[in-house]
Amino acid sequence: MSISSLQFLPASRGTLVKLRRQLNLVVRGKEILEMRREQLVKELFEIMDKLKERGGIEHEYLRVLEEVCRLRTLRGEYEYRSITSLIEPPEAEVLLISIQGVTVPQVRITRDPDLSKIKDPEYRMAFERLWKVLKRLFELANLEVAVEKLSRQLNYINRIVNSLEKNVIPNLKETIRYVEEKVNEEMLEEFVRLREVAKEV
Amino acid sequence: MSLVYAVVRCHGLVQHLLKREQYLSIIYNEVSLGDIEEYRGYKDEYPLDRRLEIITRRFIERVTFLSKIVEYKIGDFLMTFLDYLELENLKVKLRTLYGKEENAIYYPYSRFINVNELRKVRTDYAFLRLLRREPYRMRMDIMRRILRRGDIALGEAYLDACYYDYVKRIIRRNERTLKVLIKFLNYEILRKLTYWLLVLGEEKVYEPITREMLQGLMPYNEEGRRIALERAIRRLGINIAEARKYIETGRIADLMHIARERELHILQRGARRNSLSLVFIYYYIQLCREEMYNLYRIFIGKENNLPSEAIIGTLITLF
Predict the structure, then answer these.
(1) ipTM of the prediction greater than 0.90, yes or no
(2) Predicted TM-score (pTM) of this structure
């Protein structure tokens, strides 16, 4: 039953019972949503704690990248490009996982890059270091996506809770009060009518 | 033409090589390489590959010019500097045979093996067929075994060994004229040997079969000897404790950079002492080669947003 249709309801005991039941349901729903909101906020804070490492990881990434660029500069483009062509690229897949009931896409690395064809220890070490940092960046990206999705869900729940709190519940309460008054009035009217009838009889 | 004429030309040509200040001006974008007379065709808007090609072509022109004004036997030796580019192309192809061809670039130089033909090669068999044309006298059975095993590093070491064998053969043919260069060539060979000792490991380089294959990596007239890594480093004039620091942290390129710097300083001293001999021509060509590598380093560094100070640290300049 939509909120706007409340005004057209017949003022009867049946309606009152129905409305009270509806109010109970809405209040319970709101409480559940608030609990869920708390859980999501807790989850978000936990993820945000992990995201604090981002600065350090990015700094490390830039350092390793500079090392690789320096190596590229020292060894020359002709050698560097053909050496990098020996790397078997990594493989990754996108999975949908559920965090607190929210579907979040996550990148999972299914195979690390194969550097076995590169025998030069300097290239190998540089690429291994780069891959190690890149993997941490992937994990960070996964967390960021999770934060984004959870925040969106949190925003949605907030909107619903607010709407229940500020609109639906007061409306229902107001309607119940109105119907109660009407029913009481009708009861009083009936009582008076019966008393008058009894007097005449 | 006479050797003295070529040497005198080299004394003049050295003046046209880029100085440290010019490199710095290019790094700090104060001048474009195209503003310098020697590199008129260069434009900053060109993609990196094209820019590197222009720089390489300038080096090729310089060496080709010199090899034409000296007598044949010296010219033949000078051309070996360019043949090294061809050998590098073979290495690139060897790697791409086991990797991917898309991003590979080749030096724009062919003498024995056409670079366009090489680029088109897709199979081991086609690669071996092309190798039959070159003068390095590679043993096909060895190359076939390397390709079958997919041991790219050993393949590259073998290519280097064949190249230095080829250079040594040219020197042996004209030992009377070219013997003044043996000392400097040996330094270069030792540098290469050190690199392969670091990459492949001493055991592998001196394994009976590999040892025979890699004879070319031994200095002139020292074939058959076993030079240990430490001994090679010491002979390069590098402090062993300092070298160990680089080796432990895997910084081979930096170690090779120091060795190359030393090599050029030794050569510079040699050229000053023998300023009217073939040594000066050798010195000039090595400077041209280093100018090419310095420009590569600048443009690759800039392309990859390497800080200016880091780019400067990779340069080797003598004046």
Answers:
(1) yes
(2) 0.87
